[in-house]
Write a structure and sequence with these properties.
7-stranded parallel sheet; alpha/beta; binds guanosine-5'-diphosphate; 3-stranded antiparallel sheet; 311 residues; 19% strand; binds calcium ion; single chain
Length: 311
């Protein structure tokens, strides 16, 4: 089966590790968020694409939840001593990737081309595509000011409540080569349990991509990033409360109105599914905490089986 998965970084990558175990990985296309991309010390960093690369290559630091395992921090430490920016943590091994990517981009290679090359080098079987090769950046409007994503998320620890999310560049951004083709030949579309506003949102902000999803003729299933109305990690619950008015499954599904046919949600949220039907979204109830490889596989399987039942 041809599967397309839209994904952010941490939660998305965790889910994708399960998904590659239960579907043919060579028929899986992952479309990753680029709204978080940032330039640090002159290097182009794509945190979400990198989380996916590291997770699927078995290089991720599971405990920290981001970056590479067995990481050291000498280069960043030296840069900080010399007055370089040290707020965005890049490890020595991680820096190797950013050097290669940045050089390729400066030579005129596209982000999708260099991402494909990196994925090939790391032995990934799925296709990993950035949502766009164009500059598309997430900004957060807060009472304290309007910040680029990483300044809000990392430097300010996402402490400021968000009044609005902007996707700068989205009006003109085109889907990266292969994205529309993958959606057209998909037999199933999955939205990973990523932050709907700042991980999946930037992907859906690309008009052509959103239209392709809205006009799909195959099932699309989202996996909720909330358990018991709370984010496992990060600001998704606070954002939903403030921007959508609540954290029920219907509030999550509301972020994907017209774009999904089913929502995989945790048993802890199952008493609150009545309003999902109003959105034309079917609930798929299971345990969604992905603590072990087995739990990740079971969640991916639940999404696949739920989708099969929609056909
Ligand atoms: P980021 O780009 O690194 O911020 O990562 P994502 O947006 O892809 O993932 C963040 C989301 O993953 C958060 O909203 C978490 O609640 C969610 N998440 C993390 N671990 C789990 C899990 O085990 N189960 C579920 N359902 N969601 C999870
Ligand atoms: Ca992200």
């Amino acid at each position: 089966m041809n599967v397309v998965a839209l994904s952010g970084g941490a939660g998305g990558a965790r889910f994708l590790r399960g998904l590659v175990d239960v579907t043919d990985p060579e028929r899986l296309t992952i479309v990753g968020n680029v709204g978080d991309d940032v330039e640090i010390l002159g290097l182009h960093v794509s945190p979400d694409l990198d989380s996916i690369l590291y997770a699927l290559a078995g290089l991720a630091d599971d405990e920290r939840g981001w970056g590479r395992a067995e990481e050291t921090w000498n280069a960043l430490g030296a840069a900080s001593e010399l007055g370089g920016e040290g707020w965005f943590r890049l490890g020595d091994r991680d820096l190797g990737l950013h050097l290669v990517r940045t050089q390729a981009l400066r030579r005129g290679e596209s982000l999708s081309a260099v991402t494909a090359r990196l994925a090939g080098r790391l032995g990934l079987l799925p296709a990993l595509l950035p949502a766009s090769d164009d500059v598309l950046r997430t900004w957060l409007v807060t009472a304290a000011g309007t910040f680029p994503f990483q300044e809000w998320f990392v430097a300010r620890g996402h402490r400021d409540d968000v009044d609005a999310v902007q996707f700068r560049g989205a009006e003109t951004a085109r889907p990266a080569p292969g994205v529309i083709e993958a959606l057209a030949s998909a037999e199933l579309i999955v939205l990973a349990p990523s932050n709907p506003y700042v991980s999946i949102g930037p992907i859906l902000a690309i008009e052509e991509l959103r239209v392709a999803l809205a006009r799909r003729s195959v099932p699309a299933v989202a996996v909720s990033p909330l358990i018991g109305g709370r984010a496992v990690r990060g600001p998704a619950d606070r954002m939903l409360t403030r921007l959508a008015g609540g954290t029920s499954p219907a509030h999550v599904a509301g972020c994907y109105a017209g774009l999904i046919d089913a929502l995989v949600l945790d048993a802890a949220d199952a008493d609150d599914v009545s309003t999902l039907a109003d959105l034309g979204v079917r609930p798929i109830v299971t345990s969604t905490l992905m603590r072990t490889p087995d739990a990740r596989r079971r969640l991916a399987e639940a999404a696949l089986e739920g989708a099969a039942a929609l056909r």
